[in-house]
Amino acid sequence: MVQESQTIAAISTAVTEAGIGIVRMSGPDAFEIADCIYRGKNGKKLAQQKTHTIHYGFIEQAGETIDEVLVMLMRGPRTFTGEDTVEINCHGGVYVLKKVLDACLKHGARPAQPGEFTRRAFLNGKMDLSQAEAVIDVIQSQNDYALKSSLHQLRGSVKKKISEIRNKILYNTAFIESALDDPEHISVDGYGDTLKQEVVSLMGEIRQLIDSADDGRVMREGIRTVIVGKPNAGKSSILNFLLGEERAIVTDIAGTTRDVLQEHINLQGISLNIMDTAGIRDTSDAVEKIGVDRAMSHAQEADLILYVADSSLPLDENDREIFHLIKEKKCVILLNKTDLARKTDEEDIRRICGENNMSGIPIVPVSAKEEEGMDLLEQTLKDMFYHGEISFNSEIYITSARQKHALESALESLEKVVESIEGGMPEDFYSIDLMDAYESLGSITGDTAGEDLVNEIFSKFCMGK
Amino acid sequence: MKFSANSVWENRDGYDVAVIGAGHAGCEAALACARLGLRTVIFTVSVESIALMPCNPNIGGSSKGHLVREVDALGGEMGKVIDRTFIQSKMLNQSKGPAVHSLRAQADKSLYSRTMRRVLEEQENLDIKQAEVVNLLTEETEGRKKITGVQICSGGIYRCRAVVLCTGTYLRARCVYGDVSMETGPNGLQAANHLTDSLRELGIQMYRFKTGTPARIDRRTVDFSRMEEQKGDERIVPFSFATDPEQIQKEQVSCWLTYTNEKTHEIIRKNLDRSPLFSGMIEGTGPRYCPSIEDKVVKFADKKRHQVFIEPEGLETNEMYIGGMSSSLPEDVQYEMYRTVPGLEHAKIVRNAYAIEYDCIDARQLRPTLEFRNIDGLFSGGQFNGSSGYEEAAAQGLVAGINAARKLQGKEGIVLDRSQAYIGVLIDDLVTKESHEPYRMMTSRAEYRLLLRQDNADQRLTKIGYEVGLISEARYQRLLEKEKLILEETQRLEKTYVGTSSDVQELLEKYKSTALTSGINLAELIRRPELSYEKLAPVDKDRPVFPGWLGEEVQEQVNINIKYKGYIERQKRQVEQFRKMESRKIPEDIDYDQVKSLRLEALQKLKAYRPVSVGQASRISGVSPADISVLLVYMEQFRR
To answer: TrmE-type G domain: which residues (chain A) (predicted)?
Structure first.
C-alpha cells in the first residue's frame, strides 16, 4: 500500500446550476481539514464520529456560512481510494461548490491532479488489475482536458502577465546565482534592497491575479460555446446581440471575422464562454483559410454550438459541410435575418438535419438586426441546461482551483523572500524561494523550470574564466 | 602514430581493472580500485602528465570546492594532494550563507602533478603503464557484451574484468588557434587517435566537444604595479577533513587583477574573421560558462571591460596564467590583444592560448553507477563523460572506480542521490539530461544546497566512504565523536538561558542587537543575524572547551545548525518527498511500449533515458505528472 502524505480535494460531480454537488477530500488529513470548516449541529468534531456516517451542519469560512451541507465521513481503508475520505454534499450551484472547495484548500488540502482519486484507489489495491487500463484512461482523459483547459481557457492577458512575472523572477535569481558562482566577477552585495522593491511589486501583481481568479477573470469558466456559420450569415451580429455591445466588427462583407473572438456572458445564471469564429467556406485566401481552420477546430472542442444559418439565402454546399462538422455536437440552430425575405425556412433545415441523423435540434428564428428572437434563444438554452443536455465539465473548476493554488504558493514563496531580506539573511537564501515561486507560476502556464536558470545565467551574465 | 596490429602478445600479470587515462578522474579511479584490493593497472600516454592541470592553476571554487570536499569525505585523494601543494588559499563567498562558501586554492601545478604521481607509485596493487590503449576487448554471452581486456598500441593485450575510461580531452584531440591546427592533446601531448573507433564498434555514441585555455606569460615581463594584488586568506582552511589546519598555515603568493579595455575589444573585433570558430574550422561545442575572450566581446558587446586575473602556475616557474582571456585567435593577434591590458604591455608569451576539440560520450548511455548500460564491466568518468573541470572529473573517477571494484566483488553499486551530495547532482544530471556543452558544476544546480554544504561533507559522506572501505577506522571514529559533540552542544545551547543581566545587555548593545526584556535561550540569540555562536562566548559561562581542530569544526557546525535551523528543516522536508519518489525503482527491463496511454513525447523520452526511478523520470522534461501517474499504475500492475 502506498501511503500518500498529502490530502487532495476536488469537486467530484458535474457542475450544473441545479441539484446537489459534492466536494470530495481524500488523504490522511481529510477529517482534520473538514473539522476546520465544518460546524455540526451538536458541536461534535467529525474526527470523533463513527466511520461511514452522515452529518448535518454548515460549512464556514472566515466567519461566513457558505452552505448548509451533509457530510459523509468514511475512514480508510473501506473507501473508494482506501484513504480517509470526506464527501461534502452541497446545495449545488457553481459558486457554492467553488467556495467549499476553496475552503478545503485554504486549510491544507491541495487540488487533485487529473485522475488522482482513481490512481490512489488503484495503487491502494482498491481496484483489481483488470481495471488498470480503465484507470489509465481516466488519468489521461482528465489530463487531456486539464491541459486543454489550461491552454485554451487561460486568458491570454493572464498568461502574458504570468510570463512577465516569471521572467523578472528568473532574471533576479540568475543575477544572484551568477554572483555566487563567480563572486570575483559579479558582486551581489547590497542587492537585497533592490530585490525587495521588485519582489513587493511582483507580489502586488500576483495578488491581483488571485483576486481576479475568483470572478473567472483568470480562467474562462463556463460552457464552451462556439458560433459557426457561413460567411456573412451574421455570426458577429449574434455575438454582439448576445453581449449587448459592439464587440465584433460587423460589415456586410463576407469574411470580415478572420480570427476567433472570445467572450464570456451570463444568460440567466448560465455561464457561457462564447467564441465567434470566421465563416466557414472553401476559400483560397490564406489568412481567411487559417481562420476557417481555427473555427473548425474550436467547433470540435465545443460543449455547445450555435449554428447561424442565413434565412435570406438558400442552403448550399458550405451549409452541408457545417452540418457534417456539427453532427455529433450539442447544437442550437439560429435562423437569422428573419427581417428579410425568406429563402430558407425551418422545414429546409429539418430536412438536412434528418439527412444527417440529427433529430430534435432546436431551431430558433432570430433577427440580430431587429433584435428579435432573443427571448426564445434564452429560453431554449435554459431548457437544455436544466434538462442536463448541456453542462460543463467540472474539470475546469479543479483546473482553475489548481491555478489559484499555484498563485497562492507563488505569493507565499515571495513573502518568504521578503522575510529573508528583512531578517538580514545572506543573498543565497533568496534564490531558493524565488525559484519555488518561479516553478509554481510555471505550473499555471504549463512551463517547467528545467534548465531555465542555468540558461538565463549564461545568456544574461558574463561568467569568468 | 601507427599502432601494431600484427605483433599481438599477452601480458600475464593479470589485472582486475584497467584504468585508461591518468588525469584527475583516472587517478581517483585507480587509487580507489587498488585500495579496495583489486589488481589495477593505469594507462597513460605519458607518465610525466599524471594529474596534469592543463588549464587553470587552481582547485576548488564555487561548487567545485564542494566536490573536492565530498571526494575527500568518501576517501578520495584530490583534497589531500592540494592541501600539500597549494600556494594560495581563499574561502569564496564568505559574506554569503554557509551553503555557498567555497574553498579555492591556487596550486603549484608541477608539484601537484608530481605529488599525485608519487601517491600512485606508492600504492599497493597499482601499476602504472605508459601506453596508448587502442582497443577494448569484449566477449558476448547471451547477447550481452562483457569486458575481457584492453589492447595497447604495441599490440599487447592486458586481460582484465573491468575498464574505467578516463580519457579526458585526449580522444582524437586537436588543438587550434588561428589557422594553426595540431593533432595533439593538451600542452602538445600525444593524442589518443585509435580508441574512438573501438568504442564506436561497441555501439557507443560519441560527441565532439570543445574547450579552450588562455596563454601563459613570463612573470619577468609583467608590470605588477599596474595591477591590483589579490592575497590569500589570513587563516587557511584545508580541503581534506584529515588535514590539521595548523600544519598548513604558510606564506602565500598573490594573484593579480587587471582589466581589458576598449582597445583590447577593438583588436578582437577586427580579427574575428581569423578565429577558427568563426571560420568554421572548429565544429565542437564550447562551454558557455567559460567563454573565450572573443565570445565575451561578441556576446556582451556593451561591457566596456572584462576582468583578467594573472595567476602564478607554481613556485618554481615564471609562467603565469591569464585567467579570463582564453582564446583561439592567431598568435599575432594574441600578442597584440594581451599587450593592451594594463601591466601586460611588454608581456612575452611562453605558451599560446588555444582551443581544443575532443571526443566524448553522451553520458545518457551510462547507469548512475557510471557503468555503460550495454557493456558489463565498462565504466567511465571525467571529461570523457561530457563534463569539464578537474573537480568534476575527480568526483566521477572516484565513483566509477568504487563501482568498478564493487561490481567485481559482487557488491551493489554506490549511487549518491541529489539530496546527498553535489556528486549526486553531477552524475544524475550527466546521465539523465541531454547536454550540448561540457557540463560544469554550479551551486544553482543543487536543489538542496542548504544541506549539501562544503562544511558538512564529512557528515554526509564519510560513513559511506567507511562502508565502502576507503575511510580508515580512526577517521570514522573521529566523525562519530564530532557528531556526538555537535549534538550535545546544540542541545546545551537550547537549554541554556540568559537573563537581562548587564553583561548580556552590554554585549547585545555592542552588536546593535535588541536588548532583552526577559530570559531567552542562547540558541535564540544565535539565530539573530547580527549575532553568532562565537560572539556570544563572553556571556556563555558554561561553554565547554573543545580540543584542537575538531573543536573548531564542532563550533562551526553548531553555529550553522542553530542559525539556519528553519531553512534547513524546510529543505529536509522537501528531501523526504524527493526520496519517496527516488525509492520507487522502475524495473530495468520495463517495456515502455506496453505502457498504454503515455503521451508520445513522454514515451519517446522515457525510452531514450530509461530512468532508474520514478523520481528520475519526473525530472525529464516532457514527462508530465499525468504520465508519472500512468507509469505508477503500470508499475503496480507489473508488481502484482
So the answer is: 222-386
